[in-house]
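Could you join me in thinking about how sequence relates to backbone shape in a protein? Label the sequence line and the structure token line clearly, so we can match residues to local backbone shapes. Once you have written the record down, we can walk along the chain together.
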Amino acid sequence: MSDLSRILTVLQEVRRRVVRIAFVLAGIFGFVLFFELVPFSFRFLGVNVPFAYPFPSPFYNITAQLFRAMRAWMLPPNVQLINVGVGDSIFVQMEIGLLVALIVGMPWVVHEVGAFLVPALRKNERALLRQIGIPATVLFAIGTAAGVLWLTPFTFRLLFFYVGAMGLAPYTLGVQDFVTFALLYSIAFGIVFELPVFIYALTRLGVVKASVWRKHWRGAVLGALVFGMIVTPDNSGITMCLIAAPMIALYFAGAFFAGRWERRRDAPPEPPRLAVGAG
């Protein structure tokens, strides 16, 4: 097979995988944009169990429900959201829908990427991919959830506390600015949680030794601060530190697990134990 034929074969496989991923993500995206969740409860063993069923609704849809929940959970009561542009409300629903599609469809994305890479990997690399696939997905979900449920609300309340301390009028915030800040901040926190997996994988593959992670910790701290400055849209420095602090802690955690794996790999094998026969 010529080089051109191999390249075309690889490109066709990439196209097939991308189309499969796009179909799944588009299905999730369309579902959250055109359906709402209608809550109800039923009794099971004498206990009321809350549940919900989907119902077609292109306006009061799942993204609108999530937006109202985000506003109630993240913002202080004296902050007013306004619709600045004509299409802001539509863009907000699309941004939320894309985030939901990415989070819910992440296992399928990981599966397709892994299926594409496995034939080109060595045996130890395939074993590593299977080992870190689920932890990487879980850590991204945990980090994003922590950003939505804790970090972003805490950041908003901390920033608006300064507004109240100065005796200023209730703050008015554009709806698109609010959602963009909340989603970008939460996704950045999810990406930060991938750092230990990234460090551990590079050490397992022999690309970076564990001693290198420990030696260059000062550069990692500086990089965490720069990353926090880039992904946070405000210029207060507070949000930068709130992203950088857990990123630094996760860096040291990844370096610790990478070093532990190297020590286990380099440890001399234990001598076989002699079976003592019954005399």
Q: What stands out?
A: The mean pLDDT is 82.
